[in-house]
Amino acid sequence: MTTRLEQQFAFLLEAEKLKSVTRATPIHDGSRPENSGEHSWSLALYALVLADQAGHGVDISRAIRMLLLHDLVEIDVGDVPIHAQGGAAHDAPALLAAEAAAAERIFGLLPEDQGAELLALWQEFEANETPTAVFAKSLDRTQPVLLNLRAGGGSWEEFNVTLPQLEARVGAKIARGLPEVWQAVRARILPWFAARERL
């Protein structure tokens, strides 16, 4: 076995750990929390299916690759729900630094050329500046909303999320890359929040 193949196997076995990272968002039927491996697979499928919603300059193949990689850092740092601690912890400098260190470690398991390529993809996603990264980030915000809605509120109930909070923390990010998707999603969540307020 070559050293290159050994490094690739080491990375792939490390990546399997993502299946053990529990997220706040439930799966579709609300029976259990989703894990980060399932989330990454779902987002790759979202990119494939919603490719017709992508704006100018979006590379769908590159977006799928980003989405398969984007949460690998959670192997080291865990998942930090966007609504936890009022949404403030999600972009905290300490968390961002920990994620960057995790990316260096995890992608560093690969052969140097391959590791550098995948780390650059992860960094592009995190920077959220290119059309492809904006599209991918928008999908990353869309999927949990649809799962929470399907599961009867999911993590919105756990963190007592209000409609204005959801629109500020999530809606604006979806709308940036997927404006029509956000309008369709918003039309679905408005009745849920209205019914909740009447209780």
TrEMBL record:
| UniProt-listed SUPFAM superfamilies | HD-domain/PDEase-like
Tell me a Gene Ontology molecular-function term this record carries. 5'-deoxynucleotidase activity
One cellular component (GO) term of this entry: cytoplasm
Signal peptide stretch:
none
User: Among its keywords, does the record have Metal-binding?
Assistant: yes
Residues forming the HD domain are 15-182
Tell me which domain of life the UniProt entry assigns to the organism this sequence originates from. Answer: Bacteria
Q: Which InterPro entries match?
A: HD_domain, YfbR/HDDC2
Keyword list (alphabetical) reads: Hydrolase, Metal-binding
Record protein name field: Hydrolase
Q: Which species is this record about?
A: Pseudothioclava arenosa
